[in-house]
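Subject: LV1 protein structure
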Amino acid sequence: QAALTQPASVSKNLGETVQITCSGSSDSYGWYQQKVPGSGPVTVIYQNDKRPSGIPSRFSG
């Protein structure tokens, strides 16, 4: 089972680029966006660097 670590929080000003580093033992990972607590997450990156249709290019992996 993969074990991944990422920061608990990242702070930036509006319009600035945010980079979240994820480290660990996984060969393939995805990123998910949850805008509102309790709502379902949206996949923004899968298989390390692929974007689903409709996800803007500002999301990268």
